Amino acid sequence: MSKKNKKKSKFKDNLITRSEEARTVRKIVLIIIISLILILVVGGVSGFIYVKSALEPVDPESEENIELEIPIGSSTSSIATILEENGIIKDSRIFRFYIKFKNESDFQAGEYTFSPAMTIDEIIESLKSGKILAEPTYTITIPEGKTIEEMAKIYAGKLHFSEEEFLEKVNDESYVQQLIESYPTILSDAILDPEIKYPLEGYLFAATYSFYENEPTIETVVEKMLTKSQNVIYPLVNEIAAKDLTVHEAVTFASLVEKESGSVDQRKEIAGVFYNRMEEPMKLQTDPTVLYALGGHKEKTLLEDLEVESPYNTYHVDGLPIGPIANFAQTSLEAVINPEETENIYFLHDSEGNIHYAETYEVHLQNKEKYID
């Protein structure tokens, strides 16, 4: 090879080497940038989740009363520390940031009786007014298997708003959208389907709720119930996914099990029957969905009722209805996740609340003739 060609070859090799080095550097820089972005995103999401959790009650179901003293001249920092040390709030730093953001001040010294079930706003209001909250102002029980309309009636009978105001609020699309953003673990855009009767149906958990304000708002009521739902559903999210269900489907499924059962054993068995029907495949054909579609209560479902065309009517649609038909007990959701293994496909209720199962339609008819007709 001539000297000239050797120079050209060397130049070419150097050029290739520099090009490869440049590509390597670009890859390294890109990896670093992506890593930094991921760190920021993960950190931001984790921070948001932590702050949101820190602003929630320490224990929404607690009935414990904790007495403590706020000394004269206490700073907001020392008050926050006292509250955290006594288990009234989760994080004193978040509490301080929150009251600064809300521009709250003029907290009064004195002896207080707080509860771990109190919200941050309830605590702040108490500290500002000097009111000692030994007992909740209202204690309201929402039983399992209730619809939003039934809940509206219960709350309207005890609090300072009407059934119509409650129903209007829970159907307010902009408010529901805010709730989806605030409770992404349990709420999704699935509840915004225009054919769903009430977006929050099934998500307002059955429990006893304590309210410390003189006039709790509808938002306070709804968000306290959603927080309870989140506390129940969130630990089960992975198990729900393992059953190839979305949270919305699981909540819907649990509402059907709730309406068709009266005990833990019944719930697990009925969940197993429903799974068997879906595997057949056959329609779920559960009467409570017909009654929900009709929008009323009837002692007995008639054959003509089964014909109602509704996305809730499981005699009409395949699989689960479009959404929940009531709230549910935790055991109903657990039954959906861990159903009884059974060969039964049919069941019916007798007048005494017993359930009679059958593997075949022939046996089911025999049960019907024996226990119903």
Care to describe what's here?
The record marks 260 as: Important for catalytic activity. Its EC number is 4.2.2.29. It catalyses: a peptidoglycan chain = a peptidoglycan chain with N-acetyl-1,6-anhydromuramyl-[peptide] at the reducing end + a peptidoglycan chain with N-acetylglucosamine at the non-reducing end. The chain is mainly α. The chain folds into three domains: 66-129, 2-Layer Sandwich (Dna Ligase, domain 1), CATH 3.30.1490.480; 138-234, no CATH class; 235-371, no CATH class. It contains 14 helices and six strands. The strands form three sheets. The chain has a two-stranded antiparallel ribbon with strand order 1-2. A two-stranded antiparallel ribbon has the order 3-4. Strands 5-6 form a two-stranded antiparallel ribbon. It starts with a helix and ends with a helix.
What are the low-pLDDT stretches, counting only 5+ consecutive residues below 50? none
Shape: globular
The amount of beta strand, in percent, is 5-15%
Helix content: 40-55%
* Average pLDDT, all residues: 86
Largest sheet: 2 strands, antiparallel
Total discrete domains: 3
User: What is the CA-based Rg, rounded?
Assistant: 29 Å
Order of helices and strands: HEHHEHEHHHEHHHHHHEEH
Largest sheet strand order: 1-2
What is the number of helical segments per DSSP (H or I, 4+ residues)?
A: 14
Q: Could you tell me the number of beta strands? A: 6
Q: Provide the structure class.
A: mainly alpha
In whole angstroms, how far apart are the ends?
106 Å
InterPro entries: MLTG-like
Organism: Virgibacillus profundi
Transmembrane segments: 28-51
Protein name: Endolytic murein transglycosylase
